[in-house]
Predict the 3D structure of the following.
Amino acid sequence: MGLLLVALFIGLSGYNVPQAFSALFIGATGLQLVPFKVNLFPLAQSLAQTAPLLFTGAAIAFALRAGMFNIGAQGQMVAGALATAVVGAWDPALLSPLHIVLCLAVGGIAGGLLGAAAGLLKAYRHVHEVLSTIMLNYVAADAADYLVTHGLKERHSMAPQTVKISQAVYLHPLVSGSGLNAGLFVAVVAAVGASLVIKYTSLGFRIRTVGENQEAAAAAGVNVPAVLTTTMFISGLLAGLAGSVLVLGLEHRYIKGMTGTYGFDGISVALLGGASSVGVTVAALFFGGLTSGAGYMSLQTNVPDSIAIVVQAAVVLFAGARTLPWRQRRQPAPVAKPTKGAFAPVDAADD
């Protein structure tokens, strides 16, 4: 329905709808049906867009399982990216794989600590996480902007950016000239790992219990404040890894504004995916292909690439319509049949 709505907008704007959608499909998948041709570069670009969306979508979905809405993935991503840029530029005389792992770990922890701050405010001061995470987005972004224009700024450069990281920790392209790198595999492992934690660990059981009912969880002996804080730490860690992968695989330094809107787009991914691992993965692939395909469509047909944002919004709105009250069929409450006995009324039908 979202795609049909966008097709209507494209048609009313005077563009050729079949031509636009054909270009969108080719740009997203690299497949040209007539004549049949396969181009790996557009597909690689779509997968490159998918990786950060999978990280941030999984981060927000993880928090949702505890009944918390993490709007701060954008700031957590910034924290992870900046921390990775600092550690990546440091030469600790480690083997390259160990240095990469260290960069990812530091980036994840930086994002996790920012998420944990919101979790602590929720657990002990009852500050709603939507409010605190939105505010922490500004704290992270403005603090990073200050640092890359002052203490961490690259010398002899006018741009607000850090120095380049060591080439030993680069995540090199898997397809020449594209942005696809091993960060996609890290994103898949992180998303699967988060799902396994939720489904098969005692921590995951406590998270799900708190998400269902905090009062009942507390009555059953669950340490609710600890669960809320831990959940937000892990959620922030996943978002921080998104920033790490951007630095290691694409920019090779922290640049002001490099995280784009991936943190906010992850909200759409999590909601469309229903907070499940499979759903989030499919949604990330869809939005990643949509973003990449929209650029190709704009080049081939002159349709503005901002149409991808319209598609994203329309799809989320239609997906959200599933939860509207008029969509929920109310089942009549079962009526218990009175039991015959000395004090039970006799059913007329039984007479």
